[in-house]
Amino acid sequence: MADSDRSDRLSGKYFDAAIDLLRQVRDEEGDRIIAAGELIADTVVAGGRVFSFGAGHSSLPAQDTVYRAGGLALMNLLSVPGVVGVDVRPATLGSALERVDGLAAAVLDTSPLERGDVLVIISLSGRNSLPVEMAMNARALGIKVIGVTSVAYTEATTSRHASGSFLKDHCDIVVDSRIPVGDAELTLSGIDAPFAPASTVVTSAIMQAMVATAAGTLAERGIDPPLLRSGNVDGGHDWNARVISEYADRIFYRQ
């Protein structure tokens, strides 16, 4: 088989695998995604704030909801220096920080989060100390927690937190991303390791589905959802300036 033929076949297989996972999440996690979106809408109505957090590559779906054209202006990123993103050097430091006990408490104590707010915590494995303690401490502070994680990891791995628990054990709502352990969808003879992760594709879709549900729920209640428009369309900047000004007390990415 020519190299180009094999590449075409692999690219198609990856799309098929990602689509299958998206369909599975849509069909089997739909009720929980709707519940999460409604909780976000409830928080907006009550005057609360909404934050999302993820470490390493799990931060990408969290960041994708913040200051996003077509998204809710009230989505804020809870940032932990050295953990959010892979720009830290060395990149392995971020993974190490996820296992540090006590870091989550320090982050929450210095964050704008308050009782009645919502925190979406994204962690593929849900096994490291940081996401587990983030959920535990947030709920102790009266913050509602939505967890997005792969429940399969709880059956195939052990927790790295002293309690032996996982992120899913400390959430008000859990959305299972259905990502297989190892986060690699393809294998091929001649390649020793599985490859082609799909967690970012699927988790980003989950996050956007939550936000879409929240926007629709607000509209059903007669509330104009505070949505942002693209700055690359005429009038977009003026629209966004108005929305951000109206909700300035609940938006923290401008500070």
UniProtKB/TrEMBL annotation:
Keywords: Isomerase. It comes from the Bacteria. GO terms for molecular function: carbohydrate derivative binding; isomerase activity. InterPro entries: RpiR-like_SIS, SIS_dom, SIS_dom_sf, SIS_GmhA/DiaA_subfam, UPF0309. This is UPF0309 protein DY245_34105. One of its GO terms (biological process) is carbohydrate derivative metabolic process. Signal peptide: none annotated. Residues 40-228 form the SIS domain. PROSITE patterns: SIS (PS51464). Gene3D superfamilies: Glucose-6-phosphate isomerase like protein, domain 1. Belongs to the UPF0309 family. Pfam families: SIS_2.
